[in-house]
Design goal:
- By secondary structure, the chain is of the alpha+beta class.
- It has one domain.
- Helices cover about 30% and strands about 30% of the residues.
- It has five helices and seven strands.
- The mean pLDDT is about 80.
Length: about 180
């Protein structure tokens, strides 16, 4: 039992302990925005992983809806099943962060007199993940992604089609000519 405790202690000291893990979303997820990321919108959001570099979705929406670079991310008007909706999007990023114990313990052993060292230098940030988060409102400012909203399914279908078009499109300049 004593050797098992030493082995576990050794594993703990030499490993990286994850503090934050960026979620991996398979297709999409509909949740309240502030549950996905603090200080985010409180409305329901349609969120998916963005495999492309940052700001590519901005360029996609700008080209698709001929926005001319004006208010691209906010209140883009679309028609879904004959009704007018307003789509806004955000590009939040999240990163996975872990704490490295081994370098911290070595530094503590070497500089025993300086115990007030900041822990941030022992954090290791792994890959940043980018996401696209949509909010959708109707003309009366009702949250169209709320599960109780009457046209909930057609809105989700439209957003899924928009997501698929974004993921397969490489040349955004050709978007205005597609129908």
């Amino acid at each position: 039992m004593k050797y098992i405790n030493y082995c576990l202690l050794l594993l703990l000291i030499t490993s990286c302990t994850p503090l934050k893990i960026a979620p991996s979303i398979e297709d999409y997820k509909i949740i309240k925005g502030n549950k996905f990321k603090r200080k985010f919108v409180k409305d329901y959001t349609y969120i998916f992983n963005d495999p492309k570099p940052q700001d590519q979705f901005y360029n996609f929406i700008n080209a698709k809806f001929n926005k001319g670079g004006i208010n691209v991310a906010y209140n883009t008007e679309v028609i879904i099943n004959g009704s007018k909706f307003y789509i806004s999007f955000y590009e939040p990023g999240k990163s996975s962060v872990s704490l490295n114990f081994a370098p911290m313990l070595i530094d503590l052993a070497l500089t025993a007199q300086n115990i007030d060292m900041p822990l941030e230098q022992y954090y290791s940030s792994k890959s940043d993940k980018w996401y696209i988060a949509f909010t959708v409102f109707d003309a009366n400012f009702n949250d169209a992604l709320n599960p109780n909203y009457i046209n909930h399914i057609p809105v989700i279908t439209y957003l899924s089609q928009l997501k698929e078009e974004y993921l397969i499109t490489n040349n955004y300049a050709m978007l205005p000519f597609k129908k």
